[in-house]
């Protein structure tokens, strides 16, 4: 289906939500190497588990404010008072377990940064820095491997489906549907995930 601007987009993009259209056109699938952005997307994808991405995206500004602009150092140091404030914040998703997981995941994120030099180096090492082109899936051998490793490191809400969506969001996977004006840009098939 062609949109009013003449472009064809992935079927999941909501034409009635300008924020969602901008996300599809400008962010989703664009390779990310900035650790702050990688942390933000990881936390947001964890909150998305069991919900729609559109719901999370619509609350993104409130999440940024509530979670100190996704500074992993600050999030890792949250006290019980801060967690209680988050659980009472109507602007975000107030799931107690997911809020606690954000703190746990911040700790693990910082440990990965220490080990690899950056979280970017960690997440991109799985594909030797290459973008993988895959469509029509919700998990893969790659997301299975990363999910297993992140769980081993103590992260929560990082099942293979969440990690697959995360890899799509940060551009490790290029998953724009055939026909979408953004399909197959700068991506290649790459299938070694050891």
Automatic annotation (TrEMBL):
In the record, biological process GO terms are:
base-excision repair
Q: Does the keyword Hydrolase apply?
A: yes
Q: Name one Pfam family in it.
A: Adenine_glyco
| Single GO molecular function | DNA-3-methyladenine glycosylase activity
The answer to whether keyword Acetylation applies is no
Show the SUPFAM superfamilies listed in the entry. Answer: DNA-glycosylase (SSF48150)
Which residues are recorded as binding Zn(2+)? Answer: 10, 24, 176, 180
State the InterPro entries in the record.
Adenine_glyco, DNA-3mA_glycosylase, DNA_glycosylase
Superkingdom of the source species: Bacteria
Q: Which UniProt keywords apply?
A: Glycosidase, Hydrolase, Metal-binding, Zinc
What Enzyme Commission number(s) appear in the record?
A: 3.2.2.20
Q: What is this protein called?
A: DNA-3-methyladenine glycosylase 1
Q: What organism is this sequence from?
A: Blautia wexlerae
Per the UniProt record, the lineage of the source organism begins with: Bacteria, Bacillati, Bacillota, Clostridia, Lachnospirales
């Amino acid at each position: 289906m062609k949109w009013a601007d003449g472009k064809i987009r992935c079927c999941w993009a909501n034409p009635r939500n300008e924020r969602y259209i901008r996300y599809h056109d400008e962010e989703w699938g664009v390779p990310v190497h900035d650790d702050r952005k990688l942390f933000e997307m990881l936390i947001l994808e964890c909150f998305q588990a069991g919900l729609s991405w559109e719901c999370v995206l619509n609350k993104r500004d409130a999440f940024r404010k509530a979670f100190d602009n996704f500074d992993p150092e600050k999030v890792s140091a949250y006290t019980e008072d801060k967690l209680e404030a988050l659980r009472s914040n109507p602007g975000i998703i107030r799931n107690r377990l997911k809020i606690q997981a954000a703190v746990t995941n911040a700790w693990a994120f910082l440990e990965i940064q220490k080990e690899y030099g950056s979280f970017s180096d960690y997440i991109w090492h799985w594909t030797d820095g290459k973008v993988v082109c895959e469509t029509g899936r919700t998990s893969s051998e790659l997301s299975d491997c990363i999910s297993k490793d992140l769980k081993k490191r103590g992260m929560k809400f990082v099942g293979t489906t969440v990690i697959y969506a995360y890899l799509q969001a940060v551009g490790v996977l290029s998953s724009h549907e055939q026909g979408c004006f953004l399909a197959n840009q700068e991506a290649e098939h790459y299938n070694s995930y050891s």
